[in-house]
Amino acid sequence: MKRLLVWLAALALLVTAQGALVHVHANELEAAAVRFAALPVGVDPAAAAVRAGLFDAAFQPLDGDALSFAQGAARWYRLRLAADWRKHSAPLLVIHNARFQPVALYAPGAGRVQVQHHAQSGRDARFSRRALVFELPRDLRATQSMYLRVPGAAKRTPFSARVYPEEAYHVDDTGWVRVMVFFESVQFTMILVGLTLWLALRDRLYGFFVGYLVPQFAYLLIASGDLYLLPGGHWLEPLGIRALWFVAALSTPFALSFIIEFCEMRRIAPHVARALSWLRWPWAVLAVTALLPMAWHARNSLQPDVGNVLFLLCALAAIVAVIVAWRRGSVAAGVFLLAWIPQSIFTALRALQLLLQLSLPGWLEFGLPAALALSSLVLTLGLGLSTLQARRERDDARNEAQRDPLTGLHNRRALMARIAEALTEARQRHLPLSLIFLDLDHFKAINDRHGHLIGDACLRILAERVQSELRPGDTLARWGGEEFVVLLPATALGEAAQIGERIRRRVEADPFIASGVAVAITVSLGLSGHTRAAIESPEQLIEQADAALYRAKAAGRNRLIVHPVFAATS
Fold it and tell me: Does residue 219 form part of some domain?
């Protein structure tokens, strides 16, 4: 978690630095003074008559630049510079927040009307699609009029119009492009990471993660206009703003599914998980209706409002659900809160800005992409932590399955696999291999006299004493009951017999004290191994050592017996 917070802080600093550069450029960019006037709403004369000046007397001056798309009716605006254009750089008319609405400009000396909108193909590649950019005459005078015709909209939507020197605006626009490319690059990289994890692990959690990020990434590309620069991007032009609605609606169901899986909602809070599951269906309906013809949306203009209100409700429900999971012990839920709260705040502010038809401030314009990039990075780090935790749990479970719960030694299954590996290595490298089968003498009598707790303690102390006499690379395992096996790789008969004798003496050297009772313990040992007469299987090696052990027990116990085949071939 500490590393995650360090990454989060580092990205926040980087995003802040990028945003600061853009705002420096924005502060250096000064617009020329412009006088605005507008025809009354509902007055929509022919363009030729407006350009001829026949309606100049009807234009009403505006205070400031409070321009807007009128509800249900086209509107005309007249723009005039406060002073003649004297700068060496050509003037540009820059319109912000027009989004997908087509705006027509009638400038002095222009042979034809200039019409632009956000999704338009073939726009001037010198400028980004952050705004609509119209070129104006270099010799533009204060007495000359520029006319804008904006179409009617479903709701009153404010926009701004500024006149900038081309050189200065180009510097500012380049800074904006750099920041947006940075945010988009972060998103794209996280998608590749999630896709790689999904293809490698085939876990639906990563599938939901990719399904959540891809529409979100497409939203950034559409909002910035970069999607229309890609091959085939012009096919999306007829969809207009509906493409933005579609990807926004498509992202949320995947986000809710990802929350359910990532935060383990079905296990921790099943009722909350069911509620979030039901919230996915309205978004599926919104995604489908977003693709309906624009004429349908003209008659039913509630699509964006319903989507924005529904998003606010879903974001609140999701945050409450994740907090519940976090309070119930889900570490993943805490990571998700770190990632999603900034994104939810900025997305909610953007939704409110659209609902209330307010102008788009610069901090929100950059804040939302930054929050999306930050969220994707933190969630990817969270997925990495989750994957590591699952791997540790898998390794712990596998290790536990191979261990004897009483002594902590390898169990029979793990031992057989280790013997098979050691036999293969011994054959390939022509090395000796020895195995000792040992048994705690009179174990049943110890249990009958002192109880099973004392008996279990004897087994544990036996394991400790045997382990203390072994070398690095030797393996001690519990075969079952009071029987143990010692595997000695690259060990010939002589050295193996010495190790067996050390074990026997070490076990009998000191009585075991338990609850004030001294319990003397001894062991019998059978020794076998692999030499010139090759052992064919681990079972054969165990069988020979076990036979030698029984001979040791029959000979009076507390002794080591070597299997005759091993002794003869050694």
Answer: yes
Residues 531 and 383 reside in one and the same domain = no
**How far out from the chain centre does Cα 50 lie?**
55
How many structural domains does the chain have?
A: 3
| Residues 247/222, Cβ–Cβ less than 8 Å | yes
Q: CA Rg, the chain, in Å?
A: 39
551 vs 534: CA distance, rounded Å:
22
Q: 100: how many CB neighbours lie within 10 A of its CB? A: 16
What gap in Å lies between CA 270 and CA 23, rounded to an integer? 46
DSSP letter for each residue of 425-467? HHHHHT--EEEEEEEETTHHHHHHHH-HHHHHHHHHHHHHHHH
Same domain, 328 and 200: yes
**Co-location of 383 and 292 in the same domain:** yes
Residues 215 and 307 in one domain: yes
Structure-block tokens of residue 156: 């009153």
Residue with tokens 């540790």: 392
Same domain, 149 and 182: no
Q: Which of 2, 129, 130, 156 is nearest to 73 (CA)?
A: 156
Domain range for residue 124? 30-171
CA distances from 351 to 322, 347, 396 (A): 21, 6, 46
Cβ-contact 245, 308 below 8 angstroms: no
Count of alpha carbons within 13 angstroms of residue 63, beta-carbon side: 0
- Give DSSP secondary structure letters for 99-151: TT--EEEE-TT-SS-EEE-TT-TT--TTS-SSSEEEE--TT--TT--EEEEE-
Same-domain status, 132 and 218: no
| Average pLDDT per block of 10 residues along the chain, 570 residues long | 49 48 53 93 91 92 84 91 92 90 87 86 87 92 94 84 93 89 90 88 88 91 88 85 88 90 88 90 87 67 77 84 87 81 78 71 78 83 75 73 87 91 89 94 89 89 93 93 94 94 92 78 93 77 94 94 87
Picking from 398, 421, 453, the residue at the C-terminal end of a domain is 398
